[in-house]
Specification:
Length: about 280
């Protein structure tokens, strides 16, 4: 954890930082935004918290419980986020299981933060794809098992958000595998967001940058303002998206992405934001 904090803030503390005096809206879930916001602030930015998602338990644990009770039937366990790890392992332990029971499965973690969360819980990680998109994950798994033909007959468990992209399970099934997608948590829009304050800041031209770290943050931000076109509201504001999928969702709401790191992590996003405003000097 300390290493990740150092990575987020490692080039900070310079009084002449390009973020000095800049106001940045952070839409990430409040519980997960602290390190990200702290890194931006250490570069001199003024951070406005506007959480657009809240992580909550699934409406029902039935499917997750069934999957956990039948773990012996799976070959691979795929975690797409830290949230998936936390909510899966929480329920896993509530049902009286120990992480040692996962030793018989091969575990794929998307992103170093997800892998670190698993390792900290005592779970062995067998694969971390180089590319964090669903397409990249499929390619990495295909290589890890020795080719597409070896996927046939394999069974994969994906505990993740109740609403998520379907490419990966679909691609696995097209290759002859079985992919069980079970809801381990839900992302919902917080009810306490201060829309009036955010709107006043945007209309007043007080915001320099807005960050989106998932497609849900974009969609929920648009819903907050009851619009399908965010271009006018965010005119003159630099849009920072953590990755290709989020940027694609932003485009669906009329936004051009100005800042997008090659690596889909908040540490990389901080560096990309700093680099962007360095060029604006």
């Amino acid at each position: 954890m300390e290493a990740r904090r150092d990575d987020l803030a490692r080039t900070a503390d310079a009084p002449s930082s390009p973020l000095a005096g800049r106001t940045i809206i952070v839409t990430r879930a409040e519980a997960q935004a602290r390190e990200f916001a702290s890194a931006l602030e250490s570069h001199g930015a003024r951070v406005i918290h506007c959480p657009m998602i809240e992580i909550v338990p699934p409406e029902s644990y039935d499917l997750l419980d069934e999957a956990i009770d039948n773990l012996y039937g799976y070959d691979w366990l795929i975690f797409t986020s830290v949230n998936g790890v936390e909510y899966f392992l929480r329920r896993f332990r509530e049902l009286g299981h120990d992480t040692s029971e996962l030793d018989e499965l091969r575990v794929c973690a998307i992103g170093e933060a997800t892998a670190s969360s698993l390792r900290e819980a005592g779970v062995r990680v067998d694969l971390i794809p180089n590319r964090f998109t669903a397409e990249g994950v499929f390619a990495a798994i295909e290589t890890a098992v020795g080719g597409r033909d070896h996927l046939r007959g394999m069974v994969f468990l994906l505990p993740r958000a109740a609403v998520a992209r379907d490419y990966l399970p679909r691609a696995l099934e097209e290759a002859g595998a079985r992919a069980d997608v079970v809801p381990a948590y839900r992302t919902v829009r917080p009810q306490s967001t201060d829309r009036a304050r955010i709107e006043a800041l945007l209309i007043g031209g007080s915001v320099d940058c807005i960050t989106f770290t998932s497609s849900s943050t974009v969609t929920n931000f648009a819903q907050l303002f009851d619009t399908t076109d965010l271009s006018k509201l965010l005119e003159g504001v630099a849009v920072a998206c953590i990755g290709e999928i989020t940027a694609r969702t932003a485009a669906e709401y009329g936004l051009q992405t100005h800042i997008q790191p090659e690596e889909y992590t908040t540490a990389a996003l901080v560096r990309a934001i700093v680099a962007y405003f360095e060029r604006q000097r």
